[in-house]
Design brief:
By secondary structure, the protein is of the alpha/beta class. The protein is built from 12 helices and 15 strands. The protein has a domain of 237 residues: NAD(P)-binding Rossmann-like Domain (Rossmann fold), CATH 3.40.50.720. It binds nicotinamide-adenine-dinucleotide (NAD) and 2'deoxy-thymidine-5'-diphospho-alpha-D-glucose (DAU). Nicotinamide-adenine-dinucleotide binds next to α1, β2, α4 and β7.
C-alpha cells in the first residue's frame, strides 16, 4: 500500500488528483492537508466522503509542527505539493501572501521532509521517499509567436505569482543538489475542467455567460494559453510519482494553444446552445483594461515526459470543454456557493472599475 501526503487537495487540481487516485488505486492512503483558503472547497471532495482511504487535515503547509507530525504519524511514501496561492491577478493586487504560501510554505515542507527522511548519522535517505513540486509553465516567462518552453528554458517569471513559483522551484532543486533529496518538478500549462474556482478564465466566462453578465476580456484577447484537461494533468503527476527519475523536471502541456477570444467565443456558443438561450451571444464580450505585465503566449514542449514516461494529453479540447461546461451547468449548487459571499467582493474590486 502506498501513502501520499497531498497538499492543497481541496483546491481545483488537488481535489481532482485525490479523486483520480482513489478511483485508480484500491491500495492507497491519502493524507490531504489544506488550509481551506478562499480557493479550498470541501464540496470538491464530496465523492471522497466516507472513504476511509482519505484523511482530510485542515492546516497550513507553513506550520512546521503540524507538517512534522503528519510525516511522523502517517509516514507517506510520496508528498505531492499542490497548495499555493494560484491566481495571477490576486498576486498583482497583494504579493505578500504569495511569498508566505508559495515560497515559505514550500521550504517548510521540504525541510520537514528532509528531517523525516534523512538520517544524518548514516548520511543516507530512507529509500522509496519522494517529493513532487507541482509548478507551472509561467516560471519560464512569455513566448513570442514562435517556439516552445522546454525543461531547460531559463526561468524568467513576470508576475509576483510566477516569481514565487520560480523561487519555490529553485528551493526544490537546491534540496536535491545540496542534500540529495529525491524530487521531481512538474511544470504544466493552463488546466481546465470540473471544480475550478470561478476567478479563472473558463469558469468565470461560463458563469457570466449563463447569467447574462458581461464577459471581461483583458486587452485585445489575443493572448495565447495552452489548455490542458485536468484529468490528463493528474495522469501525468501519477506517472511522475511512480516512474519519474529523481531530480528531473517534466513539462506537461495540452498541445492545445488557443487565444483567449477563441475560448470565450467557444463558451458563448456552447453555453448558448446547451441552454437554448440566444441572449448568450458575442454582444456580452467587453474588452477591459489589460492585466499589467500580461504574458502574451505560453506554449509547452512536453516531448520529454512523452519519451520518458509515455504520457500525452488524451483529451481533445473540443471534448474537454463540453465536459467542463456540462459539469458547471449540472452543479448549480457548487456554482452558487463558489460565486457568493467573498467572491462577490472580489469580483467587484477586480472588475467594476476596470475600463
Ligand atoms: P487552487 O487555487 O484551486 O487551490 C489551491 C489550494 O491550496 C486550495 O485548496 C487552498 O485552500 C490551498 N492552500 C492555499 N494556501 C495554503 C496553505 N498555506 N496551506 C495549505 N493549503 C493551502 O489552485 P490550483 O489551480 O488547483 O493549482 C494547484 C497547483 O498547481 C498550484 O501550485 C498552482 O501553482 C499549480 N498550477 C496550476 C495551474 C492551473 O491552471 N490551475 C497550472 C499550472 C500550475
Ligand atoms: O499557465 C499556468 C497558469 O495558468 C497557472 O500557473 C495559474 O495558477 C493559473 O491561474 C493560470 O494562469 P493564467 O493567468 O493564465 O490563468 P487565468 O485563468 O487567470 O487567465 C487566462 C487568460 O485569460 C490570461 O491571458 C488572462 C485572461 N483573462 C483572465 C480572466 C480571469 C481575461 O481575459 N479575463 C478574465 O476575466
Amino acid at each position: 500500500m502506498k501513502t501520499y501526503l497531498i497538499t492543497g487537495g481541496a483546491g481545483f487540481i488537488g481535489a481532482n488528483m485525490v479523486l483520480y487516485l482513489l478511483r485508480k488505486y484500491t491500495d492507497i492512503r491519502i493524507i490531504n492537508l489544506d488550509a481551506l483558503t478562499y480557493a479550498g472547497n470541501m464540496e470538491n471532495l464530496q465523492q471522497a466522503e466516507g472513504d476511509g482511504r482519505h484523511v482530510f487535515v485542515h492546516g497550513d503547509v507553513g506550520d512546521k509542527a503540524l507538517v512534522a507530525r503528519l510525516l511522523r504519524e502517517h509516514d507517506p511514501d510520496c508528498v505531492i505539493h499542490f497548495a499555493a496561492e494560484s491566481h495571477v491577478d490576486r498576486s498583482i493586487a497583494d504579493p505578500m501572501i504569495f511569498v508566505d504560501t508559495n515560497v515559505r510554505g514550500t521550504v517548510n515542507l521540504l525541510q520537514c521532509c528532509k528531517e523525516a527522511w534523512y538520517d544524518p548519522a548514516q548520511r543516507s535517505w530512507r529509500p522509496g521517499k519522494k517529493y513532487i513540486q507541482v509548478s507551472t509553465d509561467e516560471v519560464y516567462g512569455a513566448l513570442g509567436p514562435e517556439g516552445y518552453f522546454t525543461e531547460t528554458t531559463p526561468l524568467n517569471p513576470h508576475s509576483p505569482y510566477s516569481a514565487s513559483k520560480a523561487a519555490a522551484d529553485h528551493y526544490v532543486m537546491a534540496f536535491h543538489d545540496t542534500y540529495g533529496m529525491s524530487v521531481n518538478i512538474t511544470r504544466c500549462s493552463n488546466n481546465y475542467g470540473p471544480r475550478q474556482a470561478p476567478e479563472k478564465l473558463i469558469p468565470l466566462m461560463i458563469h457570466n455567460a449563463q447569467t447574462h453578465q458581461p464577459l471581461p476580456v483583458y486587452g485585445d484577447g489575443l493572448q495565447v494559453r495552452d489548455w490542458l484537461y485536468v484529468e490528463d494533468h493528474c495522469k501525468a503527476i501519477d506517472l511522475v510519482a511512480t516512474a519519474g527519475r529523481s531530480g528531473e523536471i517534466y513539462n506537461v502541456g495540452g498541445h492545445n494553444e488557443r487565444t483567449n477570444l477563441f475560448i470565450v467565443e467557444t463558451i458563448i456558443d456552447q453555453v448558448g446552445r446547451r441552454l437554448h438561450d440566444s441572449e448568450i451571444n458575442e454582444g456580452l464580450i467587453r474588452h477591459v483594461a489589460d492585466r499589467p505585465g500580461h504574458d502574451r503566449r505560453y506554449g509547452i514542449d512536453s516531448a520529454k515526459i512523452r519519451a520518458d514516461l509515455g504520457w500525452y494529453p488524451e483529451t481533445a479540447f473540443e471534448d474537454g470543454i463540453v465536459k467542463t461546461i456540462d459539469w458547471y451547468l449540472d452543479n448549480p449548487q457548487w456554482v452558487r456557493h463558489a460565486t457568493s459571499g467573498a467572491y462577490q467582493d472580489y469580483y467587484a474590486n477586480m472588475y467594476e472599475n476596470r475600463r
